[in-house]
Amino acid sequence: MKSWAAHLQPEREPVLIRDGFALGAMLFGPFWLLAHRAWVPAVLSLATYAMVQALMPPVVSMVLVPAIMLLHGLSGNDMVSWGLERRGYLLAHIVAARSEAEAFVRLLTERPDLIAWMPASRIVR
């Protein structure tokens, strides 16, 4: 089973972020962060890549770039969570489930008051 962090903000749909390694973050780095609206980490990440490429000798950058990519994979979902917290969402629940849909069902079972903020397409019956 996977664990999902449920971020809540009043009168908004809950956001679930899966805990664990993010392959997309490792492969696409700052662009993956931009796609997930983690603006500050994306800008810092892009600046880090630019500084490594501009300031380091090629041999050193050949080691640092894969290390940065690995760090993105390991902490990508955490950076997205941080971005949500900066926008006013609060980490309210940790849900264990096999899929995101099952995690939403478990969250809504625990917190039926959130159903009012869910779009009809997300509610699984």
Task: Give a brief rundown of this model.
The protein is α+β, with helices and mostly antiparallel strands. Helix content is about 55%, strand content about 15%. It has one domain.
Textual characterization of the structure:
This protein has helices at residues 23-28, 30-35, 39-55, 58-86, 100-110; strands spanning 2-8, 15-18, 90-97. The relative contact order is 0.23. It has one domain. Helices cover 55% and strands 15% of the residues. It contains five helices and three strands. The two termini are 21 Å apart. The protein has 125 residues and is an alpha+beta fold.
**Overall average residue pLDDT:** 91
Main-sheet strand order equals: 2-1-3
Question: What is the distance, rounded to the nearest whole angstrom, between the alpha carbons of the first and last residues?
Answer: 21 Å
Task: Give me the secondary-structure category.
Answer: alpha+beta
Order of helices and strands, N to C? Answer: EEHHHHEH
Number of domains: 1
Give the strand tally. Answer: 3
- Shape summary: elongated
Sheet bearing the most strands, described? 3 strands, antiparallel
Whole-angstrom Rg: 17 Å
Please bin the fraction of helical residues. 55-70%
